[in-house]
Amino acid sequence: MAQENDIIGDRYRIITQIGLGGMSTVYLALDKTLNKQWAIKEIKNIDDPRKREVIVRSLVEEANLIKDFDHPAIPRIVDLIDDQNKLYVVMDYIEGETLTNRFRRQGPCSQKDVVDWGIQLCSVLDYLHRRNPPIVFADMKPSNVMVKPDGTVMLIDFGIAHRMGEDLGHLSYGTHGVFNLGTPGYGAPE
Predict the structure, then answer these.
(1) Least confident of 57-61, 137-141, 178-182
(2) Stretch (H or E) spanning 174
(3) In whole angstroms, what is the distance from residue 148 CA to residue 31 CA?
(4) pLDDT tens digits for range 48-97
(5) Dist. CA 94–CA 38, nearest whole Å
(6) Is 139 part of the annotated catalytic residue set?
(7) Active-site residue identified among 48, 70, 92, 139
(8) Are the C-beta atoms of 146 and 94 separated by less than 8 Å?
(9) Residue 152 to residue 120: CA distance in whole angstroms
């Protein structure tokens, strides 16, 4: 794991850890060249070369998928770094908290806030669905929605998003040969 003041890719100085997930740790970092803050996702070290190749390919595909997006609710990926057998994804830093953390911190939210967030999420999903070909986000859940201090939302983690009709061979199979897309309990039953 990266530590405070570590330099990633000869450019990004780690400031602090801001998130932790099953496959990654996310840090706030300062770009020494641009004097700008970014979020850096460190992918957990994968010793198995085949698994590592799948993860690298998935990260590159995610970056290629969203590189042409131009929507205020979609953060940009600006760099991919393979440094000393560790993988890092450099992306826009979003000040705020996930809906999951917001719910844990304050409990139920006001109807006004929930309706506003829903309208904003519909806007970004409409944008994705109007792409040619349409983009399927595939992992809509509270932990993938960031709420900024001004109340605007950002949709994060496009790791399993894909173009409609795309070959999903790069994603891992679950039980019975069925793709595991999304988080149980949040995906459409079909």
Answers:
(1) 178-182
(2) none
(3) 21
(4) 888 878 877 877 888 888 888 999 999 999 999 988 778 899 999 999 99
(5) 8
(6) yes
(7) 139
(8) yes
(9) 7
